[in-house]
Amino acid sequence: MIQLLEILGKDYESLKDIITRTDFDSETLESFSKAGINAPVSEGKFNEDLYFFSFKIERYKIEFLRNKICQIDFIEDKNKTQEIIDVLRTMKEFEFRFITKQQVEETEWEIIDDNTEEKGFTEFKRKRFDFDPSSQFDRNNIDKYGVMGFRSHEVNIIIKEEFIESKSFFVFEIYKIPNIEDFN
Asked: Hey, is 157 helix, strand or coil?
């Protein structure tokens, strides 16, 4: 059993017994090794079951940065998402915020960097949302939120509803807040 938050930020070398690389086949990795090339890890899967607290995660994607697990994304249905949110909301180390889909639609884009006059550059836009801490979260209607998020000193958790045709699901993006050492 692998706990998601315990392996987030860990180096591939320390976890290679529980991770199977899926970015290269074994022959290619062996060829790299013989040539003295240490290919960075870009994709992998766990050899054991992955859990987020007591919730077993079936469908996930591991993202690496400099051979460290920097992010794990997974998807869940509405009911399991509600259960996970309930657990996270009871934990004091996480700050919870949410933005409704209506707020997302009504908020104007603001230009933060306009480089359109230079050839080959584009302008960068963002939407900034003010969170009202007094607003009530509607646990039974999580599909009305554009973004739900939890933040601690070490981890950010972003939850968004996505659609494939007429079916909806919720995507969890869980990532370690990078330290300066992560980029050295």
From this structure: strand
Q: What is the pLDDT of residues 91-124, one digit of tens each?
A: 999 999 999 898 888 877 777 765 656 666 666 6
Q: How far apart are CA 39 and CA 32, in angstroms?
A: 7
3-state secondary structure of 25: coil
The b/e string for 61-100 (b: 16+ C-beta within 10 A; e otherwise) is: ebebbebbbbbbbbbbeeebbeebbeebeeeeebebebbb
pTM listed for this prediction: 0.85
pLDDT score of 59:
95
65 touches 178 (CB < 8 A): yes
List beta partners, residue 98.
148
pLDDT tens-place string over residues 11-39: 999 998 999 998 988 899 889 889 988 88
The partner residues of 4 in beta bridges, in order of sequence, read: none
Tokens of 115: 């480089």
Q: Given this model, what pLDDT does residue 135 score?
A: 85
Please tell me the total number of residues recorded for the chain in this structure.
184
CA dist 58 to 11, 80, 165, Å? 22, 12, 21
Q: What is the pLDDT of residue 105?
A: 84
C-alpha distance from residue 172 to each of 104, 152, 159 (Å): 18, 15, 5
Instruction: For residue 171, give every residue at least 6 positions away whose Cβ sits within 8 Å of its Cβ, in sequence order, or none.
Output: 73, 74, 75, 159, 160, 161, 162
